[in-house]
């Protein structure tokens, strides 16, 4: 947060600065960018309304909850504030000569330049009450007693609530201040209005009694009682001016939003900023662009303004609701008339309160879903949570919320996935979220890389578990049928117990942890890959049943080939045929080989661990046969020296194993070859162009992007495509008259 400009007594202060000056200010340890010689270095005392300027910066130095920390060696003061805005205000006041340096439970001390003596003097104000900021009040006040014994109420808050609380004789600079606030909002700056009033002793005494009683209340309506008490005192204010603070976009935000839009993710912005500020930020991060039609829903019509002046709350609510409903229906009609053009929906907090009513919210949701971008401005924390719930329940889609402040907590908890950004806004969002990241740009890698990998790994692992257990179960069932359901087991008891423990489970775990269908670089280069998760192509019932069918076919091939190869023929040179223990061990060997080789075919990215687990599972089976067969017959039963004396010496055992494994894998291998060549999925297309070396060829890249489930209408990629299309059509129009 950087204090950029301010408007005091109807005069705008603060001029544009160069990057060199900005870097210099940061290097000197000051985020102050108000570069205006009229108020810096004490020159404000020569301004026409110097007494108003003095009160303005006094308010900034007093009306806050920041804690000063004075370095004993250097004497430099630093501040611990609840929010970056507060820190920026206190630092701005310090840099302009109003240095807050001490706070106790009952006093606030600061240094200022005395207008009469033009020397720095120390001021100590008695701190009587702090009326804290909340999302409903949208303002904060302190009540102090100055050194002359005057009682002062100092207040700062959003323009939407502050202008309505001005006294008739306190509106001297209202028009000019509103002009400047709109200009600041257009520049993407956050604004606050500053005002004050003097209190009488009796008035304050009556308020303090009521306020203390409300604070000490333990009833359920405690907050309402406090709000009622503060409502009565925070009125008839005298306007001082407005502040403008720059909340800069973090590095990489536009690029991240562009990639997320290409991935098929719908992006909504829920912010407490003014509409003009939110729109400019939307353009800055490419959520909005030139040529995108804006559907703006607001309650600024003359009809609403006149009703508000009349003051009848019921009439205002009724007219406002009808007005919002009318605007939403008009927006839907506009979309229906021209469904091909991209639209952006922008709605303010007042309108949103009515749009979320039960009888309107579904219509509002239909309009919002049809728009490419949605920006909700001046939203309270409760409204953010309600909008998130509306999208989650109304669409049935998975919702992800990301925020960095305490006012985002409700939204983070309401969404299916909450991501908190740790930083200067505090840790409330992080503590309430499922995942914490340091910057917004890391969301790109979290979703497009790790999100895609995780979805593919888990879906493939689950399908593989179905496959390997169906292969095993099919052979058990067929053997029972072959034995006339006599109850004779196909395998030794320990074979049954260890199948899912040692011989086939570790490769599945390795698949779920290490596999990568494409590298991280290509996941970021082709955000389209993420749409496999959006469309659920890898975990739909068709794929699950496909793997189950593959397991059934593999089980049938293994069983009948082993039975036909071993049953009628003499198994050894002495003419003995294969007994139940030989057939069972051979079938089991083929199963272990097939399910592990199937894993080797399914894996896209081999690591040393996967090699160890896949081939180690097969080797472990043979080691188990040797160790278990060497035990006494009371323990090994049918497996007693079956491998060492019967299986290993017989060439037919090894021949059958190789032949059956190849035969069981041919159906899957053939299916994958045809699919990869003629019907590749997104990751298959990228694997092909990587294999053929066309990853940097624009033609191939565009070919992949054209497979998107929806046209990308948000982000700088969409903006450049739209610009190219406009130039293309303009050239066609110019060529038409010539031909």
Bin the helical content.
40-55%
- Please tally the β strands and state the result: 18
Largest sheet: 9 strands, antiparallel
Percentage of residues in strands? 5-15%
Low-pLDDT residue spans: 18-24
How would you state the average pLDDT, rounded?
85
In quaternary terms, these chains amount to single chain
Number of helical segments with 4 or more residues: 30
Distance between the termini: 58 Å
Labels describing this entry:
single chain; 739 residues; alpha/beta; Calcium-transporting ATPase, cytoplasmic domain N; Rossmann fold; 3 domains; nine-stranded antiparallel beta sheet; four-stranded parallel beta sheet; elongated; nucleotide-binding; P-type_ATPase_IV; translocase; Phospholipid-transporting ATPase
């Amino acid at each position: 947060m950087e204090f950029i400009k301010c408007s005091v007594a109807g005069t705008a202060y603060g001029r544009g600065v160069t990057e060199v000056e900005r870097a210099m200010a940061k290097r000197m340890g000051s985020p102050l960018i108000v570069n205006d010689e009229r108020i810096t270095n004490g020159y404000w005392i020569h301004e026409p309304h110097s007494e108003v300027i003095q009160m303005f910066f006094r308010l900034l130095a007093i009306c806050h909850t920041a804690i000063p920390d004075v370095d004993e060696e250097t004497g430099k003061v630093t501040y611990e504030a609840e929010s970056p805005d507060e820190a920026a205000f206190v630092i701005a006041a310090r840099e302009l000569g109003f240095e807050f340096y001490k706070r106790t439970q009952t006093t606030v001390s600061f240094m200022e330049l005395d207008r009469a003596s033009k020397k720095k003097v120390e001021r100590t104000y008695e701190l009587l009450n702090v009326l804290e900021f909340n999302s409903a009040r949208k303002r904060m006040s302190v009540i102090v007693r100055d050194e002359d014994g005057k009682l002062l109420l100092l207040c700062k808050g959003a323009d939407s609530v502050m202008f309505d609380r001005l006294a008739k004789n306190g509106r001297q600079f209202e028009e000019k201040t509103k002009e400047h606030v709109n200009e600041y909002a257009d520049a993407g700056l956050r604004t606050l209005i500053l005002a004050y009033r003097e209190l009488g002793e009796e008035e304050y005494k009556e308020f303090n009694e009521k306020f203390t009683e409300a604070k000490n209340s333990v009833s359920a309506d405690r907050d309402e009682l406090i709000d009622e008490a503060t409502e009565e005192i925070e009125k008839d204010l005298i306007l001082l001016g407005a502040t403008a603070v720059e909340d800069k976009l973090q590095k990489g935000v536009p690029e991240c939003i562009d990639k997320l839009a290409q991935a098929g993710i719908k992006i909504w912005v829920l912010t407490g900023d003014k509409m003009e500020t939110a729109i400019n930020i939307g353009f800055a991060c490419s959520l909005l662009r030139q040529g995108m039609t804006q559907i703006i829903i607001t309650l600024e019509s003359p009809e609403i303004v006149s009703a508000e002046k009349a003051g009848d709350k019921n009439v205002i609510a009724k007219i406002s609701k009808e007005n919002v409903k009318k605007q939403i229906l008009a927006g839907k009609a506009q979309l229906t008339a021209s469904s091909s053009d991209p639209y952006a929906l922008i709605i303010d907090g007042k309108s949103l309160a009515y749009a979320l009513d039960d009888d309107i919210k579904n219509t509002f949701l239909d309009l919002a879903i049809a728009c490419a971008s949605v920006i909700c401005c001046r939203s309270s924390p409760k409204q953010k949570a309600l909008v998130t719930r509306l999208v989650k329940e109304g669409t049935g889609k998975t919702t992800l919320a990301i925020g960095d402040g305490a006012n985002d907590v409700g939204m983070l908890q309401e969404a299916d996935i909450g991501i908190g950004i740790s930083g200067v806004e505090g840790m409330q969002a992080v503590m309430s979220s499922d995942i914490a990241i340091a910057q917004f740009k890391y969301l790109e890698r979290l979703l497009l890389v790790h999100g895609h990998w995780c979805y593919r790994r888990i879906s493939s692992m689950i399908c593989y578990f179905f496959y390997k257990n169906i292969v095993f179960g099919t052979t058990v069932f067929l053997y029972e049928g072959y034995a006339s359901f006599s109850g004779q087991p196909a395998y030794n008891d320990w074979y049954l117990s260890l199948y899912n423990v040692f011989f086939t489970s570790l490769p599945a775990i390795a698949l779920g942890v290490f596999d990568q269908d494409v590298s991280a670089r290509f996941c970021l280069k082709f955000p389209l890959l993420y749409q496999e998760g959006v469309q659920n192509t890898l975990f739909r019932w068709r794929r699950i049943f496909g793997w189950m069918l593959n397991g059934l076919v593999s089980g049938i091939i293994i069983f009948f080939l082993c039975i036909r190869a071993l049953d009628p023929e003499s198994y050894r040179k002495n003419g003995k045929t294969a007994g139940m223990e030989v057939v069972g061990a051979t079938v089991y060997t083929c199963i272990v080989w097939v399910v592990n080789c199937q894993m080797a075919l399914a894996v896209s990215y081999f690591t040393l661990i996967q090699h160890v687990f896949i081939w180690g599972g097969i080797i472990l089976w043979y080691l188990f046969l040797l160790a278990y067969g060497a035990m006494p017959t009371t323990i090994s039963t049918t497996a007693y020296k079956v491998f060492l004396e019967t299986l290993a010496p017989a060439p037919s055992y090894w021949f059958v194993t190789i032949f059956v494994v190849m035969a069981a894998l041919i159906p899957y291998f053939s299916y994958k070859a045809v699919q990869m060549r003629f019907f590749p999925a997104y990751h298959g297309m990228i694997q092909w162009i990587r294999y053929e070396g066309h990853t940097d060829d624009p033609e191939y890249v565009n070919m992949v992007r054209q497979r998107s489930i929806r046209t990308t209408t948000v982000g700088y990629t969409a903006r450049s495509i739209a610009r190219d299309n406009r130039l293309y059509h303009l050239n066609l129009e110019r060529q038409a008259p010539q031909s």
